[in-house]
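Message: I would value a second opinion on how I read folds in token form. Give me a protein, with the fold worked out from its sequence. Write it directly below this note and I will take it from there.
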Amino acid sequence: MDRDRLRALLAAHTPSDAQEARCVERTLAALDAPGDLFSKRSFEPGHVCSSALVVSPDERSILLVSHRDFGFWMQPGGHLDPEDPDTLAAARRELAEEAGLTDVDRPEWATGLLDVDVHDVPAGMKRGEPAHNHFDIRYAFRARTLEVTAATDAKDAKWFPFDGLDEVNTDDSVRRAARRLTERIAE
């Protein structure tokens, strides 16, 4: 992955709200900063991560994992690995690693980026790392099966109905991305 390729993806993306627009702006600004934004060892200002927002085969539920370090339900995703050719490949790899799910497709409504988020990682949360930002590039997928198995950073993996997400211990960025998924599906 290179900076110009990510800039092009971000330029082609339309944020769903003002909060996401700020996340896109912050990510673009980080791309102009020195350092290797694609290395998980880069902490100033942070590094790019990639996530998979996956809907069930009937498109009524979303797959979330209970993350070991963060302590709430979130989409599968994580750091880029050096062998990842791009953020889409990283999202697929993280989905397989955290939920055991490889049988997915990207229907017509899932083209391009789904969402962009920037979240703060407090100092010491992961392996003694300093405080930094995750610039999360998020893609949509549709599963062809409901079978998932939690692994690596995930303590559990489950399907949650879209209409029940208000009752789930997750964050606003996951809810925003879920709303975006349902909007795209309905188009």
